[in-house]
Specification:
The complex is a heterodimer. Chain A has seven helices and two strands, in the order E-H-H-E-H-H-H-H-H. Chain A is mainly α. The chains are: A mainly alpha, B alpha+beta.
Chain lengths: ~200, ~260
């Protein structure tokens, strides 16, 4: 389990601003991944989380005591993201008229990390990472969010389902299909003459 | 070995999800040894997962400070009731901002010298993470990070290579990698409000220059005795006004 992703249930009975700040700090990586899943872009995802948090702070009374904070806040992120996607579609009607259209993948966060756990040359690794991001950008938003929450945040399918308001089985199907799609694209990308 | 595709995928997903019993897992691992296509699929998936975990490093993610409650948003028009407890919210916000600043200040002491980042970039081939295809993308990259679009004028002997994102300045940082007369030069850009003091260059061989444009602080780390990139940064507003205004906010900060 990644060190920064805590596993507390985040079910809380009361929600005032200090408690909100505490839960938000704990949930931020997951919230960011939801935003990235929905929008496919790091900067947009951060903005979406911030917008969602601002909205949620103004609607603390809508939080149901005893329920899952991350899921509650994720609703706001998904609404903000949906709105951003709609605006983007209007702006780029010529080439971005598909619901899943996303901007070019933003640069990875740890581009300068020198650790190479796979033993690959950094240059190879960088190219592979680029292919992974490109393949990730072809997934539908919900599938991308499910995959990231499963792979990066290591959430179980029940938690993913709660966070994204999906049945557990649907979350699992999204992850499985997304993995297959990425494997297919990445195996093509690594084949000489294969397409990206 | 021939397997039905559905069976293949189901087994693979169950293996990856670690939902197999010990017996099933042992059986699957025996198959891995004899079925090269299965082994390749597992290896590829593990490589993909590793790449995702590295690129979305949750361990390094920290939540930005809480925004003001009820801030205007593209998705919702907030109810005006947010204004009622504004005095209390402001007090809490100020406290949170103070704590955040303190956190930034503490972490600033742990920032590695920029020369170390520079050396690592060179060791890694001096390859940027992101190559902008046009001025719009370049400006947008800074706008996304700092709400301040920036452009870079073309200059003789200067070859911008691209951008890389990290936290070299102790806050979100955009690095511009460039070659000047063939020599590697890096410009580090960070949010003015979070950079209270100039970073350390950490090398006698390299010079560090600073410039501020709007909400962005720029630091050029270069082997040259003068900045070759900082003077050529400008904003789209400068462009619309008919030219670049070279200001006197350029200075040597440290060596």
């Amino acid at each position: 389990m990644p060190a920064a992703v805590k596993t507390t249930s985040q079910a809380t009975d009361t929600l005032d601003r200090p408690r909100f700040a505490e839960l938000y700090a704990e949930a931020y990586p997951r919230l960011f991944l939801v935003g990235y899943g929905m929008l496919g872009d790091r900067g947009l995802a951060e903005d979406a989380v911030q917008d969602a948090v601002a909205l949620a702070l103004g609607k603390l009374e809508t939080f149901t005591p005893g329920t899952y904070f991350t899921a509650w806040l994720s609703q706001f992120i998904r609404h903000v993201a949906l709105n951003q996607r709609r605006r983007r579609r209007r702006r780029f009607t010529l080439s971005f008229d598909h619901e899943d259209a996303v901007p070019p993948p933003s640069p990875p966060m740890n581009q300068t990390a020198s650790i190479n756990a796979t033993g690959l040359l950094e240059e190879d690794r960088g190219h592979f990472d680029d292919h992974v991001l490109a393949a990730l950008s072809t997934l539908k938003p919900t599938a991308r969010a499910c995959l990231l929450l499963r792979t990066v945040a290591e959430m179980d399918y029940a938690e993913i389902g709660k966070t994204l308001d999906l049945p557990q089985g649907t979350a699992m199907s999204h992850v499985h299909r997304a993995r297959r799609k990425l494997r297919k694209q990445l195996s093509l990308a690594s084949t000489p003459g294969g397409q990206r | 070995m021939n397997r039905e595709p559905t069976d293949f995928n189901e087994s693979l997903e169950a293996y990856l999800d670690q939902t197999m019993s010990a017996e099933q897992r042992a059986s699957f691992e025996r198959e891995l040894e004899i079925d090269s296509s299965l082994a390749e699929a597992v290896a590829l998936q593990e490589r993909i997962d590793g790449s995702l975990r590295q690129q979305f490093d949750v361990a390094s993610m920290t939540a930005p400070p809480l925004p003001e409650a009820g801030r205007d948003s593209s998705a919702y028009r907030p109810a005006k009731c947010w204004q009622r407890p504004v005095a209390i919210a402001a007090a809490v916000l100020l406290t949170a901002a103070g704590l955040w600043s303190a956190l930034i200040f503490v972490s600033a002491g742990d920032i590695e010298p920029l020369a170390t980042v520079y050396a690592r970039q060179i060791d890694n081939g001096f390859v940027p993470g992101w190559v902008c295809e046009n001025d719009e993308q370049f400006a947008q990259s800074f706008d996304d990070q700092f709400q301040q679009p920036l452009l870079l004028a073309a200059a003789s002997g200067v070859e911008p290579l691209g951008l890389t994102y990290n936290y070299a300045l102790g806050a979100r940082t955009v690095m511009l990698l460039a070659r000047v007369e063939g020599e590697p030069v890096i410009v580090f850009a960070g949010p003015t409000r979070l950079i209270n003091e100039p970073p350390r260059a950490g090398s006698r061989r390299l010079n560090l220059f600073e410039r501020q444009i709007g909400s962005v602080k720029l630091f050029e780390l270069t082997p040259f005795d003068e900045p070759r990139l900082l003077p050529d940064f400008y904003t789209p507003e400068d462009d619309q006004a008919g030219g670049i205004t070279i200001t006197d906010d350029l200075r040597v900060t440290s060596r």
